[in-house]
Amino acid sequence: MRQVLLILLWSVIGISSIAQTPTEEILDSLQTELDRIESQKNSIEDEIHEYKLDKIRDDLSAWGLPGEDYIEHSAMFLSYNEEHEQANWVAHIILPEIATGSVSRTNDFRVDPKIETGSTEEADYFLKYLQEDSSYVYDGYGYDRGHLAPSADFRWSEQALSESYYYSNMSPQRPGFNRYSWAELEGAIRSYVFNHPGTSLYVVTGPILHENLPKVERSVNGLSLPEEYFKVVVDMERDRGIGFIMPNRQIEAPLETYAVTIREVENRTNLDFSSALANDRQDKIEKQRDITSWLNLPDTEAEPLSPTELPKGHFNTVQAKIHMGKNRKITVCGRVVSMRKSKSGNVWLNMDKNFPNQIFSAYVPKEFLLSFSYDPMEEWLQKDMCIEGKVQDFDNTPTVRIERSSQVQRFDP
Fold it and tell me: DSSP 3-state assignment of 24?
């Protein structure tokens, strides 16, 4: 009997030791409520995301797409060219949310299921062979899978970013172009959004296609190799627009060299951008070429002079590189944006762009400074000048040696 009582006693003690206290019950209740609120929050965020995608598609249509035959994806529209096996154009909107978006590259390149005739595929860019150790050996054709609508513009949405890896959004770009100048342009456009909080940008991008384009030699679908690409960008709030046309090759000229009006892009591509807008608003946007608003150039730098503004036999700072090492005298014109005296006493100057992005330099050796009746560092800085001489290669920068003051003249357009 005593043993039975002890067993019952220990049973009661055990039960009471695992029973919840009032505090634990409150904590469990609060956690359940928190889980419910979190689930509701996720559901609302998903709904907001879907409405954002709907608004992008509505806004693209309202702005006016450059064609009526196109395919709709979650956050981009595109027109596919079967002959060239790539898009004629891809339209998307960069939202302010890219400033806080944290979605990373997915690299899930894949065939676009909405292209009924079939889009390009991996074998249009390279072949890969599986090895015994489960690794791959790659046989590339020499071209990158260049995004038209860049994936980083969608980093606020996993769905939209992933869809940017459809092959219909790819075009064969030379590595020196895709990884540098093209990437620089894409970054500059995103920077505009970062520098103008709350701003959305309407963007249309594409290759300039024509019937004489060569084909990527080993492409399985006959992929054409574009010679140039265009990009049209519009700030919808400020009615501000700009266009770019860039060659598909490694280039060293600054981005502003390739800035054009949207109207010029239309003339080159036979596309009509912002077609749903009233004519006067279209004209206002499409005739602009206000580079400083878009590229945020330093106050001390200048856009290279337009070749059409220069007299015969005169060249701007970008063109100077063409004449580098040819051992003949030419005249190069631009703005002297920086000057310095070296340790050896030589006077150096850069035109249009500062170090380390200089595109043209000149120098006066110390022994020739006495031939000047003035101080070059006072007379030339921040002035448009023309310099005559042979263009040398100095660390891959076109450079002219100045020995006489007569080599340097003011330029007055």
Answer: helix
Contact call for residues 387 and 381 (beta carbons, < 8 A): no
The 8-class DSSP code of residue 302 comes to -
Give the chain's radius of gyration (CA, Å). Answer: 31
Tell me which residue has tokens 């054009």: 260
By residue count, the chain amounts to 413
DSSP run (H or E) holding 202? strand 201-207
Q: Which residues contact 351 (CB under 8 A, 6 or more apart)?
A: 317, 332, 334, 335, 336, 337, 359, 360, 361, 362, 385, 387
pLDDT of residue 57: 87
**DSSP bridge partners of 329:** 390
Check residue 107 and give left, alpha or beta (phi > 0: left; psi -120 to 50: alpha): left
pTM of the full structure: 0.76
Confidence of residue 302 (pLDDT cuts 50, 70, 90): confident
Please identify which residue in the block is written with the tokens 């020499």: 142
**Average of per-residue pLDDT across 168-182:** 96
In the numeric block, which tokens belong to residue 26?
């409150």
Query: What are residue 196's phi and psi, to 5 degrees?
Result: -130, 75
Between 351 and 251, the more confident residue is 351
Distance of CA 146 to the CA centre of its chain: 11
Give every CB contact of residue 408 below 8 A, 6+ residues apart in sequence: 376, 380, 385, 386, 387, 388, 402
Return the number of other C-beta atoms located less than 10 Å from residue 309's C-beta: 11
Residue 354's CB is within 10 A of a number of other CB atoms, namely 13
What pLDDT was estimated at residue 229? 98
State how far the Cα of 73 lies from the Cα of 78, in Å rounded to an integer. Answer: 8
pLDDT for residue 28: 85
Would you state the structure tokens that stand for residue 202, as one six-digit string? 């309407």
What is the DSSP pairing of strand 347-351 with strand 384-394?
A: unpaired
pLDDT of 4 over the 70 cut:
no
Bond into 356 cis (ω within 30)? yes
User: Quick check: 277 and 64 in contact, CB under 8 A?
Assistant: yes
